Amino acid sequence: MLGQLKAEVLQANKDLVKYGLVTFTWGNVSGFDRNSGLIVIKPSGVPYETLNIKDLVVLDLDGNIVEGNLKPSSDTPTHLELYKRFPQISGIVHTHSEWATSWAQAGKSIPVLGTTHADYFYGDIPCTRKMTTFEIEQSYEKETGTVIIEEIGDRDPLKIPGILVNSHGPFAWGKSPENAVHNAVVLEEVAKMALRTYSLNPNIKNIERSLLDKHFLRKHGEAAYYGQNQ
Amino acid sequence: MLGQLKAEVLQANKDLVKYGLVTFTWGNVSGFDRNSGLIVIKPSGVPYETLNIKDLVVLDLDGNIVEGNLKPSSDTPTHLELYKRFPQISGIVHTHSEWATSWAQAGKSIPVLGTTHADYFYGDIPCTRKMTTFEIEQSYEKETGTVIIEEIGDRDPLKIPGILVNSHGPFAWGKSPENAVHNAVVLEEVAKMALRTYSLNPNIKNIERSLLDKHFLRKHGEAAYYGQNQ
Amino acid sequence: MLGQLKAEVLQANKDLVKYGLVTFTWGNVSGFDRNSGLIVIKPSGVPYETLNIKDLVVLDLDGNIVEGNLKPSSDTPTHLELYKRFPQISGIVHTHSEWATSWAQAGKSIPVLGTTHADYFYGDIPCTRKMTTFEIEQSYEKETGTVIIEEIGDRDPLKIPGILVNSHGPFAWGKSPENAVHNAVVLEEVAKMALRTYSLNPNIKNIERSLLDKHFLRKHGEAAYYGQNQ
Amino acid sequence: MLGQLKAEVLQANKDLVKYGLVTFTWGNVSGFDRNSGLIVIKPSGVPYETLNIKDLVVLDLDGNIVEGNLKPSSDTPTHLELYKRFPQISGIVHTHSEWATSWAQAGKSIPVLGTTHADYFYGDIPCTRKMTTFEIEQSYEKETGTVIIEEIGDRDPLKIPGILVNSHGPFAWGKSPENAVHNAVVLEEVAKMALRTYSLNPNIKNIERSLLDKHFLRKHGEAAYYGQNQ
């Protein structure tokens, strides 16, 4: 069942280690199969080194376990909210990667300071508002999804393929689990360089609209010309 | 004698290298066997690469060597004080890991700025007061234990599983040598991200009590639901 | 055709990974053969791991593809402008390396703060002016070359073998593809140390002219005495 | 001739790479044999990867080459000055290691902010004065030794086993080439942590005299008790 997607989700989880995005078990990747309406996600607290395709958990969008002997990631309700809201995305990553988390802890959005950012994010990487005590105490992981959705609003999530959850850390997403991990790596690199840019020039402004358009649109959209598949 | 504990202490010491917590011989791990009242600790100044199970030193809580041909870690008296005071802990780590030591040198506690911290430490990671000249000159390593104990006070050491010794570096502890090293890694990650958060927002405040409760208690205590063993 | 140059360009592209200058496909190296007037460059968006000598693209200085089945790097027009203007150089590198890009995003030139810098760059590493909306919208990659050329002016490009493109990232160059990568590594190291020097001393001044002369000229020029080939 | 010392110097040079202290050929180690009055040093500009025992150069204290087909390190005159002045040392290292060089570029001594520093350096790690134009232009590498000697003054160089050359980078030394590299690693770690401590607390003061004494003297001198050989 969902053998191809499971292989992708397994690989994407292991890639979190390869790209230096996780310490211990601090992260998880899921993938969504729009045909069957099922998601595949990492089990909770299982180390990446020993993670096996049989450990993955299959759920429906209501969170019912369809296959798997282990408990799914404790962040599963956040993933479910995002898949339900955004039909464009089929992969989600959550980590506590060090640079993005530093921004999330500071409660600050990452402004567009250069073309690396503009190549992937069509504007600031937003930071969610703080959650209320009620949201935290009632259904914390589900409400984490809610504040992300609130912050993205009407924007196309593939144009802003990641976000900082206030006081917590980054979520990133994409057209597939692999693409979601790719965007998580970009977010981390952008967070690192933006912090250093600020230390050099605390008054730095966002890049011009024309440069943002140029870089984002040469990689994405109808007139894209970067890479071999355009 | 204590074969299982020795194996754990050996592995835990070698894990300091794996996790990037030590330069040269700047660190040590011990384990405590509550049944026999004996501790196993790294010898002083021996490189991790060649460290062998036969090099480990066994002592009683009064510091008498029960087994071993080498001198125990010079920090042994600190370990003894902590085991005597805190029956909850059976593993202790000391390192000069770079980020935690930077905070210790600054003489500052690490405030709870995010959920990574809250997942393991149920409040600030405290920094001890400076030691007096008398304490330093009389029985320095024993008094290092004293100031740690003074700072922890009536708190449960498993809820604050690590501390910064002022002008020196971190100690961490746990239910086992492995768990102590795990907490030392967490302390280091948290120290790193907190420093960067401060550089982005020097006026950042601690996270809300409800978020601290949520994260610490979903991993620890009776209502924990993170991982596979809850 | 151009077998030796292709081998050098392939190796130089793979060295970007070895030296930690690139994430994903964020970089490219080209080489120029002055005899034939042809350049060899990395194809667009192809990963370094699988990059093969047959993937490389050969173009003339007008940008006409002479050999190769893949699209050349999207930054090719920048490379062409530089080869046309500067007969001294036969290798060009572009990356988004993290420290140099942080300076580029800050819009700041890197002043000569020490001898590491002076060993390779005979003055500040300049940052280009921002490009106009017209330049960005008309022929962006070509105009990137224009602003670099404008900034270098009458200086010898081998005495300033790299530059920061404002809001974007570094370009470096040299007598060969290998030499260009060497200079890109130097630029990155210098950018890293200069940022930290500023954090220690925001009022630091450039080194004295005599020290700059001494270090640059003991490695370069007629009276050079560093290394075995002088 | 000097086979044992050559082996030590070769290993010490290669250890610069192992410990992450060098980029390209930016460093050199020498060793001194007090019996014969000869020094063994790395040749100039030769990569560490291919460095062979036959490449090493043997010189007397006047700089005359006694053995070897290659040119010695361009920094040889600095090494010679230090060996002539300080009979206590038999190994010298020079690098452009990133953290120590950042302090050297800032023109600042590294104050004793913690016990890691105090374990090896019995006081601040000094930064030399700037060299005069005359010193730079006349015999630069020899005068680099002079300003180091001037700064150390009457202090025991084994109690301050390293220094920052203003606008340049670190030199470290010790009882042997291996010990000199050890001290160069310590200097780099201490420089890194001190910079971060300053970023957390710009008003931090040196540690107390009693703590400095305790740590330095428990590792060094007659009453030392750290390690297995005391």
TrEMBL record, chains A, B, C, D:
<dbReference type="GO" id="GO:0019572">
    <property type="term" value="P:L-arabinose catabolic process"/>
</dbReference>
<dbReference type="InterPro" id="IPR001303">
    <property type="entry name" value="Aldolase_II/adducin_N"/>
</dbReference>
<keyword id="KW-0054">Arabinose catabolism</keyword>
<keyword id="KW-0479">Metal-binding</keyword>
<keyword id="KW-0413">Isomerase</keyword>
<dbReference type="InterPro" id="IPR036409">
    <property type="entry name" value="Aldolase_II/adducin_N_sf"/>
</dbReference>
<dbReference type="InterPro" id="IPR004661">
    <property type="entry name" value="AraD"/>
</dbReference>
<protein>
    <recommendedName>
        <fullName>L-ribulose-5-phosphate 4-epimerase</fullName>
        <ecNumber>5.1.3.4</ecNumber>
    </recommendedName>
</protein>
<dbReference type="GO" id="GO:0005829">
    <property type="term" value="C:cytosol"/>
</dbReference>
<dbReference type="Pfam" id="PF00596">
    <property type="entry name" value="Aldolase_II"/>
</dbReference>
<feature type="domain" description="Class II aldolase/adducin N-terminal">
    <location>
        <begin position="7"/>
        <end position="195"/>
    </location>
</feature>
<dbReference type="GO" id="GO:0008742">
    <property type="term" value="F:L-ribulose-phosphate 4-epimerase activity"/>
</dbReference>
<keyword id="KW-0862">Zinc</keyword>
<dbReference type="GO" id="GO:0008270">
    <property type="term" value="F:zinc ion binding"/>
</dbReference>
<dbReference type="InterPro" id="IPR050197">
    <property type="entry name" value="Aldolase_class_II_sugar_metab"/>
</dbReference>
<dbReference type="GO" id="GO:0016832">
    <property type="term" value="F:aldehyde-lyase activity"/>
</dbReference>
<comment type="similarity">
    <text>Belongs to the aldolase class II family. AraD/FucA subfamily.</text>
</comment>
<comment type="function">
    <text>Involved in the degradation of L-arabinose. Catalyzes the interconversion of L-ribulose 5-phosphate (LRu5P) and D-xylulose 5-phosphate (D-Xu5P) via a retroaldol/aldol mechanism (carbon-carbon bond cleavage analogous to a class II aldolase reaction).</text>
</comment>
<keyword id="KW-0119">Carbohydrate metabolism</keyword>
<comment type="pathway">
    <text>Carbohydrate degradation; L-arabinose degradation via L-ribulose; D-xylulose 5-phosphate from L-arabinose (bacterial route): step 3/3.</text>
</comment>
